[in-house]
Every structure is written in structure tokens, then in C-alpha cells.
Amino acid sequence: MKKRELAALNFQEHEGALQCTICHSEMTVMDSKSLVCEKGHSFDLAKQGYVNMLQKQVSTMYDHTLFDARKRIIYDYKFYDKVHQKISKIIDEALQEGGLVFDAGSGEGTHLNAIFNHLDKDSIHGIGLDISKDGIVMAAKNYSDLNWLVGDLTQTPFKEHSQDIILSFLSPANYSEFKRIMKPNGLLIKIIPGSHYLKEIREHLSDEDKEYENTDTVNLMRNKVDVISEERVTYEREVDEEVLRDILTMTPLTWHISESQIESILKNHHEIITVDLHIILAKF
Question: Is 151 annotated for ligand binding?
């Protein structure tokens, strides 16, 4: 089955959760080719198996090079595997009767795919959305069992109270929109950096002379949602120069430093890189 046809079938099973981003009316899958709303607005299914819900293309710093590096780190090297396992267990326990998992800011989709690889329930379905078309094209090409949308987190193409779980993995959050689309007993799973996350890289950066603090992020969350639990996952991974280069390519920490600084980090690289993440569960 072609990717477009498979995506159409998956969207069709969950079209009751979708709404038009233009007029907010209900949407249906038409002829395995497009999502069409009651008022005639139409969004085509691309041959790769995704739908672009944006009205105009948005420029971002996330490109093919970054997403390729992320995929290698997450999929090939399994850099976050311990975190993925814990998240999949949370989802499995929360959705014993099945449901929808929305990855808000999914990028190239490797986090969501890795989490679903640890699930064995066909009744749980995943939908990823990102504003970067490059990322979603890659996600659709590689992970056709899940659905993928190009869209804006400030105006997601979902009905009110349609999502069972919202996943926000090292991504910005729009809490007002999350509240709108979350089911009454739904669960927000937010992953944020801990103070030692990628500390070996931070030590090389002149403007990072102290530990990262996530206090502002946590305080914002507590003002917007009811935090029900927080778990910190910390471990070290051995990396060679090739893996480290991919980490440097994918992390925003290095977006505004020079190539000479990149080469300096590689030349003096640590054999160990620290993963330090907080898994925060919350309800609205």
C-alpha cells in the first residue's frame, strides 16, 4: 500500500478528532487524497503521506541537516531510549482502552516513533505535528504507521477535547491550545532539560558558565496546569566524534556559535555526554 493511501486510512479512523484550521468545521477524508471540511476547504495528502495545514510556509532554523542528525542520534544511537521506555510505560498505563497521542512539535518524528516501538497496543494511535515541513516530510517517509501534519501549535487542526495525551518533548508548549484540545481526563507529558543536560557541551561555551536552570519552565507550567508528578532521568552515554558532531548539529546550544568553536569542542571532546531530563505529568 502506498504511503498516501495508508495515511488516508489512518486519518479516516480518527477524522472525528480533526477540524479545519480555516473555519473550524469538521473534516473528512475524501478519495484517499485530501482532508475536506464541511465548507469545502481542502488540504491534500502528499505522496509521502502527510498533510500540510498551514496557510503559508514558515521559515525555521530546523532543516534537513538538523533532522538527519536528530534521527541518527535518536533512532540509530538510541540516545534517549531510557526516557522513551518510561514515556511508553506511562502511555500504556494511561490508555488501557486505547486512544490518541498527539506529539506537539514532533520534528522528524523519531521521538514519537521510538516511544510507539515500545508499545504493543494497536488501539493507541499517534499523530505528530510540526511547523517545519522538512521535519514532517521526513517523518512521513520513515514512519508511515503514524499520522503527520505540518501545522502551528497556536492553532492545531483538532477539535476541542479530542486528545487523550499530549506529548511535548523538548519543544515549546502552547498551554491555552493544549487545554482546548485535551480531553477532560487527558494527560500532558512534558519533557524538559535538567541542570546537567548536555553539560559537557555547555562547559565549552563561553556564555554558559553555570548550570542550566529549568525553574522558569516549571513555574510557567505550574501556573498553567496541575502538575501531578515529576521524574528526573539522568544517565551518561559514551560518544565518539561522529556521534558528538550529530549532537552538536541537532542542539540549539550551538546555533549561534562559530564553526571554529564547533571544531574546538570536537577536538577536545569528552567521551561522555550526560542526558538529564525531567518527565513532568500534568492535567488541566
Answer: no
